[in-house]
Write a structure and sequence with these properties.
alpha+beta, Helix Hairpins, BirA Bifunctional Protein, domain 2, 2 domains, 3-stranded antiparallel beta sheet, 18 strands
């Protein structure tokens, strides 16, 4: 979310940043709203000043026993009271309209963000690993999982509808093993603090990370009843980014506390409202999925370097698992709403013969911090907004998909990557069914 004063002073740069995202300029509309709001404030203040002056004159008129003048002045005071109330109402209305308009505007891309309208404008940064050469036609993960009798979409559909899955036996354990491996790596080697956050959050938490109001249709809301939030609706988290980033909402941190680094393994819930017809089979795009999230809270000076560090942490997971991948710099038209710069990691899926996103690491600058009033106090300085970052470290379901497709054998069995075997009770291979 933006400071309207900054927009007024940097209108051309603001509109240029929106243009890089493929959006039309809006600074003129925002500044006009702000001008109208300022005028309402001025009118109310002038009326209040006049009213205060008249109150003194009324006292003087009564002291001089000039009742006619006193009555005339009192009539003017009454009319000014209405003007003050109207000015205050106009200010509140226009302030609300301005805040609503600002909340709908995405973050501005950094200069290094490539030009482009969609994913076709993304730029490959690097690759890791060699694609396995199969002497048989590799299957997609859902064919493998169903042939193992450990991945059940049909029963899940009976329980919950489309885009859900039931995992059983070794695959259920593999999901748990992947998450445990990632958490141990991020906490023991990468310096993140593990958090177990709530999965239900209030409106202000979703607003703070910019899921609301722009992307309400992509979220799952639940009626919380009288026990939570006085019967209002709450939201199932679309990612642990929401509760983790909001851990510092409405706080002023000491500079020496930063950076803060949090990680969490949670279920995530997304309506996938804009994904009709895409990835309708399998585990790539589901309403409920598991993810290990990373969040960093930094000073402005630290944030860009922290993004590279976070990306490296996510890459290490894939390297330890021996999964080929590539890193993409997202173009302006494909970045997330709150991001200033995003790197996607795309893992190789031989069953699909394609790279697919498995992690997205973003720096948001002070965009989210302004929405949730998260600040820090520099040494000898006034409080300033922190910078926030978030990244998948990694999406657990998609990591399982990648393992199944990359480690499959001709008979339908699946080899367990060495890094996961301690978490699988020493199991080396998920045997073919029957």
């Amino acid at each position: 979310m933006f400071d309207i004063r900054w927009i007024r002073e940097n209108a051309a740069a603001f509109d240029q940043g929106l243009k890089k995202r493929g959006l039309e300029p809006v600074s003129h509309r925002l500044i006009a709203l702000d001008e109208a709001r300022r005028e309402a404030v001025t009118r109310a203040q002038e009326a209040q000043t006049r009213r205060n002056a008249l109150s003194k004159e009324i006292g003087q008129a009564k002291a001089a026993k000039d009742e006619a003048r006193a009555q005339s002045l009192m009539a003017e005071v009454a009319s000014l009271k209405a003007a003050i109330q109207q000015g205050e109402e106009d200010e509140r209305r226009l302030d609300g309209e301005l805040r609503a308009a600002l909340s709908e505007i995405p973050n501005l891309p950094l200069e290094e963000v490539p030009e482009g309208a969609d994913e076709h404008g993304n730029v490959e940064l690097r690759r890791f690993g060699n694609k396995r050469q199969f002497n048989f036609a590799p299957k997609q993960h859902f064919d493998l999982g169903e042939s193992l009798k450990l991945m059940d979409f049909e029963t899940a559909a009976k329980l919950s509808g489309s885009r859900f899955v039931v995992l059983k036996g070794a695959l259920a354990r593999l999901e748990r093993a992947i998450a445990q491996f990632m958490l141990d790596l991020h906490t023991n080697e990468h310096g993140y603090t593990e958090v177990s956050p709530p999965l239900l959050v209030r409106d202000h938490a979703m607003f703070g990370t910019a899921q609301l109001p722009k992307f309400e249709e992509d979220q799952f809301s639940v009626y919380a009843g009288t026990a939570v939030d006085e019967g209002r609706f709450a939201w199932l988290v679309p990612t642990a980014e929401v509760p983790l980033t909001n851990l510092v909402r409405e706080m002023i941190l000491d500079e020496q506390e930063l950076p803060l680094r949090f990680t969490a393994f949670t279920p995530c819930f997304r309506a996938e409202a804009g994904a009709a017809g895409r990835d309708t089979r399998g585990m790539i795009r589901q309403h409920q999925f598991s993810k290990v999230e990373m969040v960093s809270i930094t000073t402005p000076e630290q944030s860009r370097a922290e993004l590279d560090r976070m990306l490296g942490c996510a890459e290490t997971v894939l390297q330890r698992l021996g999964l080929p991948y590539r890193v993409m710099t997202l173009c302006g038209g494909d970045m997330g709403f709150a991001s200033r710069l995003t790197f996607d990691i795309e893992v190789w899926l031989p069953g699909q013969d394609a790279y697919r996103e498995i992690s997205s690491c973003s720096v948001c600058g002070d965009f989210q911090a302004r929405r949730k009033e998260a600040r820090y106090r520099p040494k000898g300085g006034k409080p300033a907004y922190v910078h926030t970052l978030n990244g998948s470290g990694l999406a657990v379901g998609r990591t399982m998909v990648a393992i199944l497709e990359n480690y499959q054998e001709a008979d339908g069995s699946v080899v367990i990557p060495e890094a996961l075997r301690p978490y699988m009770g020493g199991l080396e291979v998920i045997p073919a069914h029957g």
